[in-house]
Amino acid sequence: MSPSATEQPSSSASPKPPPKLYHVFEPKFPGTAPQAEDYGSKYRGRSDVAIVIDNGSWNTRVGWSSESTPRITFPPICAKYRDRKLARTFTLVGNDTYIDSNARTASKNAFDVNVVSNFDVMENILDYSFLKLGIDDDDGISHPVVMTEALCNPTYTRKTMSELLFEAYNAPSVTYGLDSLFSYHYNGGTTGLVLSSSHTTTHLIPVINSKGVLNMATRLNWGGSQATDFLTKLLALKYPGFPKTYQQQMESLVQEHCYVSQNYKAEMSGYLEMGGLDERDRAIQFPFTEVVKEQKSEEELARIAERRKESGRRLQEQAAKMRLEKLKKKEEELAYYQHILEKGKSETKKNFSRLLENEGFRDEAQLEKRVKELEKSIRRSRNKDLGIEEEEEEEVPTFPLLDTPDEELDEDGLKQKRAQRLLKANYEARQRLRAEKEKERERLRLEAEKEEERRTNDLEGWIAEKRAMREGLVAKLKEREQRKTQLSDRKSLASLNRMKAIAHLASDEPTRKRRRGNDEDTFGADDDDWAIYRDIATVNEDEEEEDEEMQTELKNLEAQLLRHDPNFTEDSLQSAKSDWSKSLVHAFLRGCHPFDPENQAEANQMHLNVERIRVPEVIFEPSMAGVDQAGIVEITSELLLNRITEEKQRESIYRDIFLTGGYTLFKGFEERMRTTLTSVLPFEAEFGLRTAKDPLLDAWKGAALWSKSNIGHPTWKGAAITKAEFTEKGADYIKEHNLGNVMG
Amino acid sequence: MAPPNNSSGTALHESLDITNVDKPFKSTTWKPAARRNKNLKQVLTEVNRAHAASIMASQAQTEANTGDNTPIPESTLAGLSARATAAQQATALQKLSLSAGQPAPTYGNIDAAPSLHPANSGHWCDITGLPSSYVDPKTKLRYANKEVYAVIRGLGQGVSDQFLAVRGANIILK
Q: Where does A119-167 have alpha helices with state H?
């Protein structure tokens, strides 16, 4: 769907600087994650320090509750594959899977949306985490575990996780909590609305007196991963046939280039306008391997030309030599025949005729003719060698026998006369043709002269005429094009007419006209009647030919106009009509620069423009991406205005609307939330909006903070499931606490 | 990406591999349950099935109860009325709490509802994303201007469906 805009017209303004290129990034292997050495000295036997695991679908973060940041952070993926060459199975976790393509392709994610679904991967992740923490206790991890889980995590998932933690790792106790509530806790919130927009989902949880009100919690099925998928789909449709792209590349594009528009409709309407497009448009260069066209140096080119010339010369020489030899042979032949002719004058007739017979001639005339031919050809080739353009002075052949009456001729003479008559007719025909050609040439010359004269005398009239001709041609071509497209549509008028014509031709029924008494079938009386057969043909070769003719005619006209009409420039050419700089589609596909499909770098570029705001916008209008849910603002206002009924609570919740999660990192997200919420909430409402200090890490930090301050307190007992409780009450037993899920 | 054929690459791989690393903290007797991996859809279907079964069971129970408690004419057994009203009160309270209190939040029921103001959502060009006020009657694609319309006309077969699928408006024949 690329427009036919190719090269920038030379006459247009000064060339813009080339676009700034951005590159796609893929996560690289960051190097071996360090193995903690301090476990023995710092944490062995310290059951008051919990292992905190933020088990998110974007990243797993693991660390000690007594520390301020997680020890390790990695994507929840694991690659388990067998290397045939080494006959060995590798299990690589997290960033280690980026080490090579084998591991990359074998890597699997532990999550389905925001819920753990692949527990084999999960187990490897836990193995890896505990190894990296340096735990080397026998028989279990001997530290309490605090782990985040999805909002309203299904019982089965929690049960399987508990089994894993208690039975495989012999954890003394496990506490499950909600990441967004931990983040809120870390940011010192007590009463407010937590809006957590993360990798796979967006959640809204009201919090009252530090307790999450889960029966008012809402989920919008949109997050960073869906945004990435959305961008992938858009770009695949925008650039069909583009080489394969990877999910991680798309992720990097979303993170780097997308931002939340403050006024989506207004910004979008002007997004592709040429003014300032170079700032809005981002050209993304994808990696490609350049097929190097062999560039020959000047010297090489000269050498090649020299070689070519040399070989040409040699060929010429050879040809000349051959010609010379031929000429010599001919000359010898000529001398010989001339000698015979000479002899004939002195010899007797009988001897001479014998001689002639020996040489293969019928009579003297034939020999003479032969001699003449030889002379002629020798002369011609000599002249050619000497470079003399000899005007072929065709000697007018004589036909002497034609004038003699038949009676005076014998049988032989008659035959010759017949032959001569034929020759004469041929000759005359040739002459006539030549004369005609001459006349035609003369006519053309005269015409050109006349036109030239007209042009010099009345340039304007000439131009007007030519322009009108051109206009007519263009219109005709357009009409044909239209008819062609119409015919492809079964329901169009053109198609209907065609079907009518076919039916009419095929029917034996007399037409209406004939029924009226005009009994004669006059089809064919007018030659144009036959055109109907041409019209009903779908693929018409004649028409295509005509099209081509018209195209060439158009080209000629345009060339003439270009030469003589001062107002007719390259820009007004039919082919330049689709000027790229005025094309919306070009701006959409290729930004504000001309596109050269031959350029491999440009062919491997994608331009992000409207996508930059279109992709993050979906959270405000999910129907854009086919998600049948209300937008984030509508959900928020509906929750605040209708579901929270108590006036006082509502007011206190207004005051602290808290944003967390990776999606809130989009530039302009908080600002947009503020302006749109202001417009939907009652005007007297005093509302506060803030974003977490670190939307990504605060969940882990909050969980660590909570563990640190609660271990040993009654609240800890009320939240942590001990091993004994697990064995006694079953795997799906949970304790409800302020920051955790409730019994489903 | 070059395959790790040199020895250093292999050594690196081996250093990263955790298959055979000693994990003292892990129970030696532990064996994972067979088929413990379930995707979200499977999990949710099971939850729904269990939920439906429990509702059926509770309904059966209440039906049995009503069958037991055939209404007793008040006039005949005045002495029992105090106890009966107490029982009735209890059930009424339970019913009330059930109807007033929302069901416990589960993964399946916390999904946000569709928009109540679908008209507020804009119409955007399916190709360029610009605001659009036209719909191609043939493909049902929205388009911004006649240039984009020309692009739509030139789309290959099935491509228009892919554009519609982006916003979930394609028709899926089953």
A: 119-133, 155-163
Q: How many CA atoms lie within 13 A of A438 on its CB side?
A: 6
Would an 8 Å CB–CB cutoff place B122 in contact with chain A? yes
Would you call B110 and A628 a contact, using CB atoms and an 8 Å cutoff?
A: no
Helix (H, G, I), strand (E, B) or coil at A215: helix
In a domain, B160, yes or no: yes
Q: For the structural domain made of A39-187+696-729, what CATH number should be given?
A: 3.30.420.40
- Show residues of chain B in contact with A217, CB under 8 Å: 105, 110
Interface of B with A in 25-84 (CB under 8 A): 25-27, 30, 32-33, 36-41, 43-44, 46-47
**Domain residue limits at B129:** 122-166
- CA A597 vs. chain centroid, Å, equals 10
Interface check for B125 against chain A (CB to CB < 8 A): the answer is no
Contacts of B158 in chain A (CB under 8 A): none
Cα B86-B89-B92 angle, rounded to 5 deg: 155
Q: How far apart are CA A532 and CA A502, in angstroms?
A: 9
Q: Which chain B residues touch A272 with a CB distance below 8 Å?
A: 128, 130
What is the spatial distance between Cα A142 and Cα A474, in angstroms, rounded to a whole number? Answer: 85
Query: Pick from A91, A113, A218: which is nearest to B112 by CB?
Result: A218
Q: Whole-model pTM?
A: 0.72
Which residue in the block uniquely carries the two structure tokens 């005949």? B76
Measure CB to CB from residue B147 to each of A138, A219, A583 and give the nearest one.
A583
Which ranges in chain A are annotated with CATH 3.30.420.40?
39-187+696-729
pLDDT tens-digit series, residues A698-724? 999 999 999 999 988 888 998 999 999
Cβ partners under 8 Å of residue A631, min gap 6: A619, A620, A621, A622, B115, B121
Closest partner CB to A131 (pick from B21, B116, B121):
B21
Taking an 8 Å cut-off on Cβ atoms, the answer to whether A139 and B27 are in contact is yes
Residues of chain A with pLDDT under 70: 1-16, 293-295, 387-395, 509-520, 538-540, 570-579, 744
Question: Looking at chain B, which residue has its C-alpha nearest residue A234?
Answer: B166
ipTM of predicted assembly, 2 dp = 0.77
Give the CA distances from residue A330 to residues A320, A382, A488, in Å, rounded to whole numbers and listed in that order.
Answer: 15, 12, 69
Domain-embedded: residue B99: no
Q: How many domains does chain B have?
A: 1
Percent of chain A surpassing pLDDT 90: 39
CB-side neighbour CA atoms (13 Å) of A193:
31
CA distance A181 to A188: 11
A113: region left, alpha or beta (phi > 0 left; psi from -120 to 50 alpha)? left
Q: How many CA atoms lie within 13 A of A620 on its CB side?
A: 25
Question: Nearest residue on chain A to B38, judged by CA atoms?
Answer: A117
Chain B interface includes A251 (CB < 8 A): no
The rounded distance, in Å, linking the Cα atoms of A116 and A77 is 11
Size of interface A-B (CB pairs under 8 A): 220
Is B150 inside a domain boundary? Answer: yes
Does any domain span residue B53?
no
Chain B residues within an 8 Å CB radius of A1:
151, 154-155
